[in-house]
Specification:
Blueprint: H1 10-20, H2 24-35, E1 63-72, E2 75-82, E3 88-94, E4 97-102, E5 108-117, E6 120-127, E7 132-138, E8 141-144, E9 151-161, E10 164-171, E11 179-184, E12 190-195, E13 201-209, E14 212-218, E15 228-233, E16 236-240, E17 252-257, E18 260-268, E19 280-288, E20 291-298, E21 307-315, E22 318-324, E23 329-335, E24 338-343, E25 350-357, E26 360-365, E27 369-374, E28 377-380
Antiparallel strand pairs: 1-2, 2-3, 3-4, 5-6, 6-7, 7-8, 9-10, 10-11, 11-12, 13-14, 14-15, 15-16, 17-18, 18-19, 19-20, 21-22, 22-23, 23-24, 25-26, 26-27, 27-28
């Protein structure tokens, strides 16, 4: 079954982390206290300690989990990095427990994971010098999969098979552009197939098949552009114009089929004299009848600062969205035109999620956060 793009915008998340760097000490202390069992006053039930994990992970507030890839309710993978010594790792969930496997590259910051089995898969991100990195697991062994020169952070990855896939990467230097790269077994390396125009950053890629896919990203806010969307069909990438007077972009896309998909993005809000940061609202797009249209836009009160983090199309007319106001995170569930909000507990800083059922999802984030949402309950796997 096709796994939609995770939509994890590492560029936008890195911007959030930069703004929050001055508050790092406070955040670490707060995470420790909050994860220690303080009650949550949101609209969900209390956090439950899972009973099916005989050997819980020894994660700490210094662990950052960036992405998760669940194949079923009973098996999945996540990736992250230990902030104390910089070692990157992959987590595997099976038989009710998470176990850890270290990645071979020291000082790698993984942002995307796509696994096909315990012995085959891909992890992508960047190293401590800003170079893009993609690791390929073949026969149970991790190897480096070279990127073109000048490739920076790997923002997203979409594999159509264990041996063929696409990725979007940022430019390594100011004079290099964001680009789409492709991998095939025949070449054994990643090759550039499309470079973005100046001022455009690709954030998301989702391939429906080797012959069709979508790429999305942000444009230039100062130029009041609507971002950029590209459609791959019949062997050619074609740019799709967006029509929105608020200049909303589509930063992440999840396609259910060639005829239906969902996107999320942001748009600028009027600046107020007391604002320390630029305000932005969130936009949810729906693709039907060959057109992208906004069906929901909003701003979180009182901050009016919305970060759209991830999107998952799960069924016709049904989608899950993960977003944040910069302090806490939430999941939005849309079905048949109706929307429900599921607040994540403990003011969690979210970075990735996966949906495995009509009322079941997994969420990962900062502070070694692993949350399992199922039927109105949140299970906390923090050890």
């Amino acid at each position: 079954m096709h796994q939609p793009s995770p939509g994890g915008s590492t560029t936008r998340i890195r911007g959030i982390l930069t703004v929050a760097s001055a508050l790092l000490a406070f955040v670490v202390i707060a995470v420790v206290l909050l994860r220690g069992g303080l009650p949550f006053s949101g609209k969900i039930t209390a956090v439950i300690t899972p009973t099916a994990s005989p050997t819980p992970l020894a994660l700490t507030p210094y662990d950052h989990l960036s992405n998760i890839d669940m194949h079923s309710p009973t098996e999945g993978w996540a990736t992250g990095v230990d902030g104390r010594d910089g070692h990157a790792y992959v987590l595997h969930y099976a038989r009710g427990a998470w176990t850890e496997e270290s990645l071979p590259l020291l000082r790698m910051f993984p942002s995307v994971i796509k696994m096909f089995s315990k012995s085959a898969g891909w992890v992508a991100g960047y190293d401590n010098t800003g170079n893009g990195v993609i690791l390929h697991k073949i026969g149970g062994k991790w190897t480096n999969s070279p990127l073109p020169p000048g490739a920076g952070h790997v923002e997203d990855l979409s594999m159509v098979s264990p041996d063929e896939g696409w990725a979007v990467v940022s430019g390594r230097t100011p004079d290099t552009s964001s680009r789409i790269v492709r991998y095939t077994t025949a070449k054994g390396t990643w090759a550039t197939v499309l470079a973005a125009q100046a001022g455009v950053t690709f954030f998301s890629i989702t391939m429906l098949s080797p012959d069709e896919g979508w790429v999305s990203g942000s444009g230039q806010p100062e130029a009041q552009t609507n971002g950029t969307v590209w459609h791959y069909i019949m062997g050619t990438w074609q740019q799709i114009a967006l029509d929105n007077p608020q200049h909303a972009d589509i930063e992440h896309i999840s396609m259910l089929s060639p005829d239906e998909g969902w996107g999320i993005g942001s748009y600028p809000l009027p600046h107020q004299p007391q604002d320390q940061y630029a305000r932005q609202g969130g936009a949810i797009w729906h693709y039907t009848s060959g057109q992208w249209q906004i069906i929901k836009n909003y701003a979180d009160d009182p901050s009016q600062l919305v970060y759209m983090i991830g999107v998952r199309a799960v069924a016709p007319g049904e989608v899950w969205v993960m977003e944040s106001d910069g302090t806490g995170g939430r999941l939005l569930h849309g079905s048949g035109g109706m929307w429900q909000t599921h607040l994540a507990p403990q003011d969690a800083h979210l970075s990735g999620f996966a949906v495995v059922g009509p009322d079941e999802a997994w969420v990962v984030g900062d502070g070694g956060l692993i949350l399992h949402y199922i039927s109105g309950h949140w299970l906390d796997y923090f050890a």
